[in-house]
Input
Amino acid sequence: MAALDQRGVRATFFVLGAMLERAPGLGRDLVAAGHEIAVHGWTHGSLLVRSPAATLADLARTTDLIERLTGCRPRYFRPPYGVLTTPALLAARRLDLAPVLWTCWGKDWLRQSTPDSVFSTVRAGLSPGGTILLHDSDCTSAPGAWRSALGAIPRLLEHCARRGLRVGPFAEHYRPTIL
Output
């Protein structure tokens, strides 16, 4: 958050409910700083093995916690591992959450990731209107992996600025597709 704030950039943080429950002040701080909070689920478990009822309960619990702690109802849902299941899509619809994915990622969760590897990987997939996936925690990845994303942020923001790409929360550039 500090790295973004130093550059006047706002972003969307897709949070795990279990982690937000452990650090409720962080959610409030994110919203107070102008960042957007969205749903990533309660834990980072694969939705492929969850029943429809469990999936709905998971997303509803996270959505309710975000709203209760921040006063903001989340609008978006990004599934763990990027795997959207039919129950997840139905749960998202019922909770009025738009399911979203990303257009490029830094692979920052890997043990061997570095700020340079994250920057290079994101830069290779970056396009106007795209969504970058980075992680600010290592609760589901290699210990300390978040440092590779953090270290890449200044270069990524400079690169985007040189290319004339505006960086901001998901709500500022997302245009839903009607299926």
The helical segments are 2-6, 17-22, 24-32, 52-70, 86-94, 115-125, 146-162, 170-173. The two ends are 34 Å apart (CA to CA). The chain has a mean pLDDT of 92.
